[in-house]
Amino acid sequence: MKTSAAIILFTISSHFWSFTQSYGDSRKQWKLLNNGSETERIEAAKKLSLYYQSESIDSLRMVGETLFFYGIDNHYQPAIEFGKITLAEFYVMNGRINDGIVMAKATLPRLQERGDMALLTNVCKIISSGYRKLDDGNSSMLWAKKAITYNRSNTESRDKTEGMISLAEAYLLQNKEKQAIETYKDYISRASKSKNYRGLSTAYARLGDIYRISEKFSLAEKFFKVSYQMAQKTNLTSPKAHALNNLAIVYFEKGDTTNARLHFQKALELRESVNDVKSISESLYNMGDYHFYIEQYQKALSWYQKSADLAKKDGLLKEEKDGFLAMARVYKELQQFDEATGYMEKALAISNELKLRQNADDEDLTNLQHEIWRTDFEEQKTAEIKKESSFWVYMLLILAGALGITVVLLVFKLKKSGE
Q1: Domain identity same for 261 and 299
Q2: Nearest-5° angle of CA 186, CA 187, CA 192?
Q3: What is the CATH classification number for the domain harbouring 288?
Q4: Is 395 within a domain?
């Protein structure tokens, strides 16, 4: 089954906790991002970035690009800077992890120079999450602790929770489950006071997943239920659907197939209500898994086919391939090997198409990265020219001063000689 515990490990900030998104409000923020004043564009980008971390990764890239190129065209450094940070986050989430880490680190000197503790905290969390994805527990821990240290001096933070989720995940990567659980519980204690429901939903979901993996299903169910309660207060679709999906999985693993199907169905209906196609395909696939594991193979095939058909209609190659692989598994179980082979061949063909698409995407992202590097290089050269110019102006002032003093002394000496 496709698990989907919501892991929001990047820039959850107290400044935006009260921001609840609807389609109308999303359109309003996009309007400000494209047509607002300089500061309105950055604030809109921050709000959209926070929203799209869980709702749409591709849209996160669009936010970053829009703001970055606005900053380039208008020579507005804050827009260039936050655009880079948003794109660094996208690169990490999209699998270009090392590129994202390098991009994020490049923003640190300017942030440190002006003492922007809020953005320093967020950038360190992005870097920590990148190293977590690379399975580098030590580096992930280091940057999570840096995020927490910067956040202590962040006057915008109400409850000083930023960085704690990154730290908990770093503990898990180091197989320190006890410390991870303690960190999550400390986070929950603090976030409850400020009513950070989105962060709370994430923390409870992660605790539930820790206990699910340890096969402590009663505890997992308890925390997934609370995760759903917190998600309901966010007015965001993805956290609610994730929580329902997590509950369905734990019910299934407990052997409660009735409740498992009910919650899979609820998650599906919620995703359908907002036309979240990728997540709908996931839910359809999970319904197929549900029927497969209770040996209702024809129903399983039907759900897998629905998942693959929807994915094909929306150009979701990976999800379409997953559907075909699942159908091949069912036919193999039914000992219908010709059909199983047919679907395996279809999956293989999509794998080849995925590679071609990935190569095209990689080229596009590389071009974008080169544009960012060019901007960094030009910025560095401009700073060097200014520094060099300042040096020569300073030297000329010294020489002019020295010359002036020499002239005064000569005049004084000549007057004295004339006397």
Answers
A1: no
A2: 105
A3: 1.25.40.10
A4: no
Q: What is the pLDDT of residues 47-94, one digit of tens each?
A: 888 878 755 778 888 999 999 989 989 989 899 999 999 999 999 988
Which of 222, 253, 273 marks a domain boundary?
A: 273
Domain extent at residue 346: 276-362
* CA–CA dist 131, 98 (Å, integer): 8
The span from the CA of 244 to the CA of 228, in Å, is: 7
Contact 148, 167 (CB under 8 A): yes
DSSP-derived letter for residue 237 is H
Q: Locate 85 and state its tokens.
A: 């940070």
What is the count of structural domains for the chain?
3
In sequence order, what are the residues at sequence separation of 6 or more whose Cβ sits closer than 8 angstroms to the Cβ of residue 317?
A: 311, 350, 353, 354, 357
* Same domain? 112 vs 239: no
pLDDT digits (tens, 9 = 90+) for 90-137: 999 888 899 999 999 999 998 999 999 999 999 999 999 999 999 999
**344-378 b/e (C-beta count within 10 Å ≥ 16 → b):** bebbeebeeeeeeeeeeeeeebeebbeebeebeee
Residue 320's φ and ψ, nearest 5 degrees, are -65, -45
Q: What is the pLDDT of residues 358-406, one digit of tens each?
A: 666 666 667 767 777 677 655 655 555 556 566 666 667 777 777 777 7
Distance CA 46, CA 185 (A): 27
User: Which H/E stretch holds residue 234?
Assistant: none
- Measure the CA angle with vertex 136, ends 135 and 140; round to 5°: 110
Is-contact 83 94, C-beta < 8 A? no
Residue of 13, 22, 221, 47 whose CA lies nearest to 122: 13
Q: Reduce the DSSP state of residue 175 to 3 states and report it.
A: coil
Say if pTM beats, i.e. exceeds, 0.90. no
DSSP designation for 70 = H
- The gap between the terminal CA atoms of the chain, to the nearest Å, is 105
DSSP designation for 18: T
> Percentages helix, strand, coil for the chain, rounded to the nearest 5?
85, 0, 15
Per the prediction, the chain carries an average pLDDT of: 86
Contact 105, 127 (CB under 8 A): yes
Asked whether residue 223 falls in the same domain as residue 177, the answer is: no
The Cβ-side half-sphere exposure at 93, using a 13 Å CA radius, reads 24
